[in-house]
Inverse folding.
């Protein structure tokens, strides 16, 4: 091969290499064109997803204030520790390390993750709510060493309720949205009101969550904040509640040593001044996600702390119902206040003997004194004259049938029977004899404490059935805007004689020879009426003696003050306290507190009182001994005597 | 030794392109490491020392260097063996000689040494074509350092020696039939190599390349991230030091193996085109030098030096775009690495040398 030939071949092969290089670089250029220009959008998104994290900033819920501006419910900062599965490279290792660092049970951590497995992996799974500072510090230290890139510690606003579970059932509680709430539009993992005010006014209270977009590096450490949308705090609400009266009422119950319920209204407009249901739960437990054991204990507690007795407990009103019968008889024009009945300790209706509580009888009594002394025979007579349907009609006008319409969730219907009601319920006709028991609040009358508060308010204000409500004003960001009181449910102008007779009778019950002397307050003209709600009949009591149930009767006290132009009205329900008059001191303390506050005087202080001395005379509110057939009737309606669940 | 008139024959365009690429790399290192770090400073020293090496390689007539190439080759081989037993260990492999301020990586210099010795060998074969025995000798000259380097282990660098041999042989006149046989043998050997020669981690890298999502957090991670890095750069890039993928460490060794990805991210397709253009220019200009060379010796030498350079450039850039399995192959002139920079610039000293002396006797 010649040198020239060799030379040519070298040149040719070098040219081939040149072409090859150009082709290869053209392909490279096209590849980059494809990746960087054609597919750019897709990769840009992936890159953003890599380094940008959107963290939700939970909005603080609206603060709740009492009627004079004192803070009742506010927010505090708490820390949550969560795992973001999206960033987990080694989840079991993270669980192990986290459990070790924060002192948790790895099994429970696993369970928490398992429960939220179906949620998207980028959503933090909360492992520790309301973490202690020690836990937060320990986890943060590990995070700095980049050992736990999938752990986030967030500071979140958490509800702070007053100590001592004050007004717990009024406030209700918050909790993570459940499945049906999520289906109804709530964000997954959102904290929303589950009971009480928190539930009823959730939309106002919730606010709008914000978001923070942060840049993180490959280890998940936050480098800087890209943008931040601040959360919008929920609306502040001013309640109609008076914090001092609320406290006074709860102190009163504690002082008296029984549980129960109290609802105090301003009879002029239906504003709720006090709302008590005892025993209560601590809403603070729910604010940080209640522990399973605590929840189970609350549910299985025989005293039923979760029950909102004010509007979910239904009880027999007993002698309180005599006010309704008196109103009905007067307004129907059947009798006037001077109508007199002679009580000989009992009377016979439809061949059956119905007892009065005073063995010797009250003698001849008029309406005022019948109310004062709670004479059964007088009201048997009125009831018999009225018939059950007229009683039902006036019970409804006074607010004791159905719901009161209070702006809180899950209210129970109150029941006062009528012929139609019985026919619908059992298909049987009403027997006139049943009316006799109804006229003293026995039989199938079952009402909530709330309905009694409305009833006594209606009596107090002269016939206007107000709707109880708890919100006075809303802060819409630019100052307080008053919330108008809900429409009046019904308005009946009582005949002047009716009002005077009722007020006089109820005034006498407190200030005369009546049963409620313990509520007497000089100069305040407290008026009221006691009553006893039978839990079980005397015969039934024998049978159920060993059942372990608390069979003692409930006591009622309804009141208003002052007698003329009343400003407060309400009900005290004493659970198993046996005597209605034991609730009177609580009412007295409340009324004292109300006027002390109004007049700028120091608030009254409860002084330990001596144990109530046993009385020789029978309690006038005690239910009369029933005849056998009535026992059967009451036993049949036994579910009414025991407060229905839910 | 350095005659005045030679100055006028220096290929300033090639030298300028090479320097431009080095400076582009330096800027990306600055960006990727977050400022004037020790890595950045080391790279500056690497470039300066490299320029010295380039001048040295330019000053001495390449024919003299080729003539003495067996000493250079032997010396490098000794260094490689020394490293194998006494070298500094980093990241599980023994590749470096610890010189205190500097870690010298002899394998980088093995490429140039091999180019020299093969140029000498092929130039001395004065027959019309290469015989089988010629080729076996050339293969042996390549295999010895390659195997030693592979033992470090540094398979990436070892593999870069193969193109040196192939390119030199190709231009030296390897018959087309032999090229065909070689290609066939390569294909047959692949499964055998897969089974016996490759380490598990190497197999894993290749298998995850074929399906990156099978191990999105492990070996496939870098490949996916490389593609995201490049793709998110777009037409104009995110701007100097504004790349999120590199800056936030989603892409590892951004100043080293993946420097081109970071360039693509921060400078966009525009920057990529500039860099690709410069590399292509360097390669074509070097091929031109091979064509212009006064003698076969010069052509072979240029081809030998250029082959490993081009191979590395093409492979690394392909890998940077997530289009090739991740291998520890750096991008010559741009990636961080003092030894690589010095050896590469020295290599271009040789290429410039051949072109500069095309008229001398």
């Amino acid at each position: 091969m010649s040198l020239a030939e060799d030379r040519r071949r070298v040149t040719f092969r070098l040219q081939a290499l040149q072409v090859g290089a150009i082709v290869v670089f053209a392909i490279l250029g096209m590849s980059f064109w494809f990746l960087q220009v054609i597919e750019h959008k897709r990769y840009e998104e992936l890159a953003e997803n890599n380094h940008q994290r959107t963290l939700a900033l939970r909005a603080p819920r609206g603060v709740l204030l009492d009627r004079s501006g004192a803070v009742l419910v506010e927010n505090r900062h708490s820390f949550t520790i969560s795992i973001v599965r999206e960033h987990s490279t080694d989840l079991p290792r993270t669980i192990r390390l986290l459990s070790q660092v924060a002192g948790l049970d790895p099994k429970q951590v696993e369970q928490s993750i398992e429960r939220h497995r179906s949620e998207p992996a980028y959503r933090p799974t909360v492992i520790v709510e309301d973490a202690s500072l020690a836990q937060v510090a320990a986890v943060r230290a590990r995070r700095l060493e980049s050992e736990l890139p999938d752990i986030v510690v967030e500071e979140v606003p958490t509800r702070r309720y007053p100590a001592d579970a004050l007004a717990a059932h009024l406030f209700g509680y918050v909790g993570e949205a459940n499945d049906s709430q999520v289906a109804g539009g709530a964000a997954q993992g959102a904290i929303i009101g589950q009971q009480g005010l928190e539930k009823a006014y959730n939309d106002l209270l919730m606010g709008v969550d914000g978001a923070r977009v942060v840049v993180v590096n490959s280890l998940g450490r936050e480098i800087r904040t890209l943008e931040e949308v601040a959360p919008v705090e929920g609306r502040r609400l001013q309640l109609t509640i008076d914090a001092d009266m609320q406290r006074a009422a709860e102190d009163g119950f504690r002082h008296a040593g029984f549980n129960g319920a109290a609802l105090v209204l301003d009879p002029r407009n239906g504003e709720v001044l006090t709302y008590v249901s005892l025993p209560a739960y601590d809403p603070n437990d729910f604010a940080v996600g209640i522990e399973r054991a605590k929840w189970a204990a609350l549910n299985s507690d025989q005293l039923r702390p979760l029950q909102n007795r004010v509007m979910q407990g239904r009880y027999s009103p007993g002698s309180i119902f005599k006010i309704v019968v008196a109103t009905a008889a007067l307004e129907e024009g059947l009798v006037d206040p001077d109508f007199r009945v002679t009580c000989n300790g009992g009377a016979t209706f439809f061949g059956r003997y119905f007892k009065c509580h005073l063995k010797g009888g009250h003698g001849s009594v008029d309406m005022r004194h019948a109310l004062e002394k709670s004479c059964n025979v007088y009201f048997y007579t009125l009831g018999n004259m009225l018939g059950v349907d007229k009683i039902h009609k006036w019970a409804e006008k006074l607010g004791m049938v159905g719901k009161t319409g209070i702006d809180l969730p899950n209210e129970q219907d109150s029941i006062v029977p009528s012929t139609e009601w019985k026919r619908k319920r059992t298909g049987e006709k009403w027997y006139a004899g049943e009316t006799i028991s109804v006229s003293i609040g026995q039989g199938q009358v079952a009402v909530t404490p709330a309905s009694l508060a409305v009833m006594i308010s209606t009596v107090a204000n002269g016939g206007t059935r107000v709707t109880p409500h708890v919100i006075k004003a809303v802060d819409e960001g630019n100052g307080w805007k008053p919330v108008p009181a809900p429409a009046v449910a019904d308005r009946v102008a009582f005949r002047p004689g009716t009002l005077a007779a009722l007020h006089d009778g109820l005034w006498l019950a407190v200030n005369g020879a009546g049963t409620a002397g313990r509520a007497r307050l000089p100069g305040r003209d407290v008026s009221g009426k006691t009553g006893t709600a039978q839990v079980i009949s005397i015969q039934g009591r024998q049978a159920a003696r060993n059942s372990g149930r608390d069979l003692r009767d409930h006591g009622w006290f309804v009141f208003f003050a002052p007698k003329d132009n009343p400003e407060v009205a309400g009900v005290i329900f004493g659970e198993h306290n046996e005597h209605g008059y034991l609730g009177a001191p609580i009412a007295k303390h409340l009324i004292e507190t109300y006027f002390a506050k109004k007049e700028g005087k120091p608030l009254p202080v409860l002084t330990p009182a001596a144990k109530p001395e046993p009385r020789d005379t029978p309690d006038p509110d005690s239910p009369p001994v029933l005849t056998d057939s009535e026992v059967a009737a009451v036993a049949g309606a036994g579910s009414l005597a025991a407060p229905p669940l839910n | 030794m350095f005659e005045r008139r030679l100055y006028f024959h220096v290929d300033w365009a090639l030298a300028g392109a090479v320097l431009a690429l080095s400076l582009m790399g330096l800027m990306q290192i600055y960006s990727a490491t977050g400022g004037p770090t020790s890595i950045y400073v080391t790279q500056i020293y690497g470039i300066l020392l490299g320029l010295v090496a380039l001048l040295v390689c330019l000053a001495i007539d390449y024919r003299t260097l080729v003539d003495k190439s067996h000493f250079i080759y032997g010396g490098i081989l000794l260094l490689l063996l020394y490293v194998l037993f006494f070298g500094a260990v980093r990241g599980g492999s023994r590749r470096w000689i610890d010189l205190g301020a500097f870690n010298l990586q002899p394998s980088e210099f093995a490429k140039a040494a091999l180019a020299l010795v093969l140029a000498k060998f092929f130039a001395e074969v004065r027959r019309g074509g290469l015989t089988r025995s010629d080729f076996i000798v050339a293969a042996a000259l390549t295999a010895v350092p390659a195997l030693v380097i592979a033992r470090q282990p540094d398979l990436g660098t070892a593999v870069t020696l193969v193109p040196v041999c192939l390119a030199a042989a190709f231009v030296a006149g390897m018959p087309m039939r032999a090229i065909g046989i070689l290609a066939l043998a390569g294909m047959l050997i692949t499964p055998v190599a897969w089974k016996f020669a490759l380490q598990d981690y190497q197999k894993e890298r290749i298998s995850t390349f074929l399906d990156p999502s099978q191990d999105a957090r492990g070996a496939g991670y870098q490949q996916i991230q490389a593609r995201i890095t490049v793709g998110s750069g777009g037409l104009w890039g995110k701007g100097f030091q504004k790349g999120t993928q590199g800056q936030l460490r989603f892409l590892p060794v951004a100043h080293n193996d993946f420097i081109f990805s970071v360039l693509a991210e921060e400078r966009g397709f525009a920057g990529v085109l500039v860099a690709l253009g410069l590399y292509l220019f360097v390669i074509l200009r070097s091929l031109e030098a091979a064509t212009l060379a006064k003698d076969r010796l010069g052509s072979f030498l240029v081809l030998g030096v250029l082959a490993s350079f081009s191979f590395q450039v093409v492979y690394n850039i392909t890998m940077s775009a997530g289009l090739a399995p991740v291998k520890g192959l750096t991008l010559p002139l741009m990636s961080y690495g003092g030894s690589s920079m010095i050896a590469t610039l020295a290599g271009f000293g040789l290429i410039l040398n051949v072109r500069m002396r095309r008229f001398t006797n």
The first strand of chain A starts at residue 52 and ends at 57. The domain at 53-239 of chain A is CATH 3.90.1310.10 (Penicillin-binding protein 2a (Domain 2)). The two ends of chain A are 109 Å apart (CA to CA). DSSP finds 25 helices and 23 strands in chain A.
